[in-house]
Each structure stands twice: as C-alpha cells, then as structure tokens.
Amino acid sequence: MLITTTNVVEGRPIQEYLGVINAQSIIGANIFKDIFAGLRDVFGGRSKTYERVLEQAKEDALRELAEKAQALGANGIVGVDLDFETIGSGGSMLMVIATGTAVRI
C-alpha cells in the first residue's frame, strides 16, 4: 500500500478515486510515563517516553487507514494528513487522526 502526503504520485497516474477515509488512534498515558515526562520538564531534554507513545499512535492510525483503503480495493492513499491532539481530563490521552484519499493507481 502506497501512502503519501502528496496529492499525486510522480510517474504513476491515479486511475480511480475511491473516497476519503480516516482512522484514529487513542493511547492513554499512564502515571509512570507522566512522572518521567515531568522530570524531563524540570531538567530539560526530550521525553523519549512520550515520543514512543506518539510514534505508536501514528503507526496504529496509518495501519488502520491502510486497512480501510484496502477494503475499498485501493492500492494507495494520497493527501494523507496527520493531526495530533490531547484529550481527556488534564490531557491524559493522546490521539492521532489520519485522513487521506483512497485511490487505485
């Protein structure tokens, strides 16, 4: 499955547009991750813990997007957009929304 943020794929014309699709991934951050991330806030530096959580949420959303495209008979997704949000009380959950257009190339 070809997945791209561009609206066209150079050298591979789109034969059919199958529709807009989207997928979400919501991952809760637990207390231990919050404690270690809080220490990073105090002492500075990157929070590898949250980076891993965000990366996992992104991969889950893209995997689900590809599954939805495949169910439509697509072999590509163009114009992919990823949005990252925090939800829940105190922003305790991380959400990734992936949107794109399923196509047959």
CATH class category:
Alpha Beta
Strands of the widest sheet, in order across it, are 1-3-4-2
* Uncertain residue ranges: none
Mean pLDDT: 85
Helical fraction: 25-40%
CATH architecture assignment: 2-Layer Sandwich
CATH superfamily: Hypothetical protein apc22750. Chain B
Task: State the end-to-end distance.
Answer: 10 Å
Largest beta-sheet details:
4 strands, mixed
Could you state the order of secondary-structure elements as H and E? EEHHEE
> What is the CATH topology descriptor?
Translation Initiation Factor IF3
How would you sum up the global shape?
A: elongated
Tell me the domain tally: 1
Number of strand elements: 4
Strand fraction band?
Answer: 35-45%
How many helices does DSSP assign?
Answer: 2
Q: Please identify the structural class as seen in this structure.
A: alpha+beta
Task: Evaluate the radius of gyration.
Answer: 17 Å
Account of the protein in words:
- This protein is an alpha+beta fold and 105 residues long.
- The protein has one domain (2-104): Hypothetical protein apc22750. Chain B (Translation Initiation Factor IF3, 2-Layer Sandwich).
- It has 2 helices and 4 strands; from the N terminus they run ββααββ.
- The chain has helices spanning 31-43, 48-71, and strands at 2-3, 16-28, 76-87, 93-104.
- Strands 1-3-4-2 form a 4-stranded mixed sheet, with helices on one face.
- Strand 3 and strand 4 form a beta hairpin.
- The radius of gyration is 17 Å and the shape is elongated.
